[in-house]
Amino acid sequence: MTIPIKPSDRLFVLTGAGISAESGLPTFRASDGLWAGHRVEDICTPEALKRDPWLVWDFYSRRRADNANAQPNPAHVALAELEAQLPGRYFLCTQNVDDLHERAGSRNLIHMHGELAKARCELECGRPPIDDRIVYANLDEVGRCSCGGRLRPHIVFFGEVPLEMPRIEREIAESTLMIVIGTSGNVYPAAGFVHWARQSGAQTVYVGPEPPLNASAFTRIVEGKAGEVLPGLFEVQS
Ligand code: NAD
Question: Which of 89, 117, 147, 217 has the CB geometry, 3.0–4.6 Å to 194, for a possible disulfide?
Fold first, then answer.
């Protein structure tokens, strides 16, 4: 079974935690959504950062260490190869904060929920995020912005607005085919992208081991693990 990509097609690809599962990075669901006795939803918030900044930095420092030890899997590689075959007609939006897409060779992508490998000023002073892959051992090690504010992870916490939404909306409106991979369909606004795509007439395909919560909005569901299903799934027509 293959998915044909016509010369007139423009792709919008959305990935979630499931695409990195075969690289050994657990999805929220696989880890029961818990860390050190806390619900992840209680750690990844602006309130938690104010109340207990080390709890938040410790969580993301460990995610950085896990990320550094993980390798891209065949699903990340298949998407990078697809991008190379579709210059100017391929756009990748990931909900993931790991950098496995980049390390597999993807170039035209955005991280709508931020990046583990960056930090920015917690005072939102307007300076851009900086590269920061340090696995901190305590809060005293965490650096400061030149304005004096402490750095925070460059992560979109629960309750914060995802990054680059105008560009995402534009890319979806222009696409004819949306491929969604490894996301449970319960985190908004990403879970709504498939509806926007359908409204503008695009075909919509989901790839994952089980149907997502928003399964009824897809024109096609390909059941299986991303690393096993994606290589060879697409047939780029000339
Ligand atoms: P989720 O944990 O809610 O759901 C994961 C989905 O992946 C499930 O639908 C599951 O069926 C699917 N899945 C599991 N194994 C798979 C595989 N081998 N191939 C394809 N699909 C597979 O994750 P979510 O919907 O992405 O939402 C949770 C939020 O937390 C998102 O922002 C997410 O990116 C973030 N998160 C990121 C990472 C990461 O950066 N690696 C890890 C955990 C959570």
Answer: 217
